[in-house]
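Hi U.,

Before I forget, here's the chain from the pilot set. I'm dumping it here mostly so it's searchable later in email.
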Amino acid sequence: MGSREKMSAYVEKRAALAAAAPESNACRQRIRQLLDEDSFVEMDSLVEARGLSFGFTREPVAGDGVVTGYGTIDDRLVYVAAQDPDVYGGSIGQMHAEKICKAVELACTAQVPFIGLYETGGARIEEGVVGLEGLGNLLASLEAASGEIPLIAAVFGPCAGGAAYVAALSDFVLMSEEKSGLFMNGPMVVSGVESKTFEPDEIGGAAVHSKETGMASLTAENDEEMIGQLKMLLGYLPDSADGFIYPQDCDDDPNRTDAGLDDIAEDLDNGYDMRQVIGSVTDQGSFLELKPDFASGMICGLARLDGTTVGIIANGEQRLDKKMSEKAVQMIRICDRFRLPILTFTDAEGYVIGIEAEKGGLLMAGASLMRAMLNASVPRIGLIVGKASGTAYLTMSSKSCGTDIVYAWPTAEIAITNADTAAHIIYRKEIAASEDPANARNEFVERYAREIASADVAAKLGHVDEVIKPSASRPRLISALNMLSFTE
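Structure:
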């Protein structure tokens, strides 16, 4: 065959491939919606399956059911793999897995994020151990990349068993309420064992993983919204574990104060929304809460402080439980992995009280949170808003456990336990001997709060750097962040 014939054969083959995999198919639509226009460069488009077959064969398809390559999002380079549900249900065979492995490894080499767009029927059964080892290599590649580059998984359809691990090993998992699913065992298997029919979303849909397991970082109503969330999330992340070189431009005044925070502080005893405090202190509109419906008493997310991305860990409820601790640990690890400073907002009396909590592993979860805080290597700034009692104080905002700079509002109470309990224990004899026990109790509570638990006492002892006016929280936190970033 001469050169002319070779060129003609090439053109005909490419035309046939384009007709077999039109631009309208699902995975290519997703890539097109995600990346900047005309920026995608496909890799390994002609790769075909070559695994074992036991009495069952499928016709090889160019690309083997996954489209991989690189492109840009807002001019930032990323690598992408999109499983094609139109090719054998997006099932994972040896070469399918190896294509994704290659994209992950090249992303690591380039030190840029890897994004997986997943919808798969699971491992390709007819390939036997060859397909299984291919999946194993993919999981190993993802684990090797973890901590090197951001790994983001967008789940567009059902993913079961080992294939679901591919998403679960990512730093961030996004799910759509339309048809996303992550299962260890699929609906048919679970229904058979339980002798009851289950819909896929009951076992591993977006609601399950956003509210019960906490695996879903963000959920969307539909695929289009999920892609928008993915782009927004990427804007908070560095290209690699080396962190950001420069902060983003910020239109919000770093010296902005907010008198509304003074009002919140004055009425603190009557309840407030910690999210409102976070929103006031950080750059306007920048707080992106992650896993908002899971363990909602612990508020975690990403925000910007004068253009710099920071991780947020805050108390939404005054007593921590196991799931809240686990959620905070995950956030700390994300921040440590990508060199994101941690900003904590503390208002916590301690951990939940009860026999079920104790038997459920509360102590181990609390210790894991303490260990994560102690091992964090990024700058940490703490703002004590209200109560900071016992181990909750130590974990969230104490200098002894790694917080670099600690500020406190005048409303802060820092002690072993809350003032009411402490006064009852310490002064119980004096209270009992008083002619008016109720009034005496109130006086001793006030005395303990003033002489032992006040923010001024902690500041005098050097455990709080400064007691600040709530309205001045933003400029003080930005100043501390700039100082810590400079000295890091």
